[in-house]
Amino acid sequence: MSAVPGQTDQPSDRPPTHRRPSNPQYRGRFAPSPTGPLHLGSLVTALASWLDARAHGGQWLVRIEDIDYPRCVRDADRQILHTLERLGLHPDEAPVWQSRREPLYADALHRLEAAGLVYPCGCSRKEIADSLRHVRERHQTLAYPGTCRGGLHGKLPRAWRVRVPDGEAALLCFDDRWQGRQCQDLATELGDFVLRRADGLWAYQLAVVVDDGLQGITHIVRGADLLDSTPRQIHLQRLLGLPTPAYLHVPVVVNEIGEKLSKQTGAEAIDALAPLDALRAAGAHLDLRSGRADVAGWLAEATAQWAARWVAS
């Protein structure tokens, strides 16, 4: 593996799937960031997305989201893929790495720039915080105030932001399969958001929208911590002429004090040598139970339970 995160070969000679999907209209994905090994929180998302694809007879893909280079851990991508394999969660196509797809994000940004939908921003985080101080004192929602919408005013460009609508057009709503109806006012709750950061790295919002569109993703199953990002992504999908997938956001796993389980909050790595134990723990969070003592049998029962709950008859 090279020094750049994500530049690894496929970790196994195993074929990418053990069955051929029968529903070509369903394409789901699991998109982990290689900031550490797979833990229970990320496994819940992986399992839910895999079960939803299998219950619908669709395809399940894996995408390594490794463009936030400072946070990526060497060989974590290989560890994640190995753990998924041990758990019986095999993708239907070879995994892809975002770090190999940066020209696609540049092309999308150029298209938005040509349409006048993005602009360079010269604001530092401190300047934005200072400009919002009076808003904070009035207990109003914080959002980027659009300081650079009309030009840089002598500042050097730092980041690129996309314009969001104003007024009634700013309200964006969607129906989540688990969480129900969701609405966000892009103007008052968020403001123009970053697509390319001041450090030159691509923002998650742009990369994920481009990848989901180009990979033909029709259904996205992920953690509820990303629920707030969804209106931004739908806004970008519309600007880029991409279809909007169906969304399902599963409840996140939390620790004993209510914090989202993550590497930063002490999440332990999944034991790839005890795959059934890991699947049972993740299944319990999704209210799935099976008495089977083998991985294949457990996954089959869990898929049937998921289908009964989430697939229309």
Automatic annotation (TrEMBL):
Biased segments, Polar residues type: 1-10
Cofactor comment text: Binds 1 zinc ion per subunit.
UniProt: Zn(2+) binding residues: 121, 123, 144, 148
GO function term, MF aspect, one: ligase activity
Residue ranges occupied by any Glutamyl/glutaminyl-tRNA synthetase class Ib catalytic domain in the UniProt entry: 27-277
EC code(s) of this entry: 6.1.1.-
Keyword entries, A-Z: Aminoacyl-tRNA synthetase, ATP-binding, Ligase, Metal-binding, Nucleotide-binding, Protein biosynthesis, Zinc
Domain of life, per lineage: Bacteria
InterPro entries found in the cross-reference section: Glu-Q_tRNA(Asp)_Synthase, Glu/Gln-tRNA-synth, Glu/Gln-tRNA-synth_Ib_cat-dom, GluQ/Sye, Rossmann-like_a/b/a_fold
Signal peptide: none
NCBIfam families referenced in this protein's UniProt entry, alphabetically: PRK05710.1-2, PRK05710.1-3, PRK05710.1-4, queuosine_YadB
PANTHER family the record matches: GLUTAMATE--TRNA LIGASE, GLUTAMYL-Q TRNA(ASP) SYNTHETASE
Protein name: Glutamyl-Q tRNA(Asp) synthetase
Lineage: Bacteria, Pseudomonadati, Pseudomonadota, Betaproteobacteria, Burkholderiales
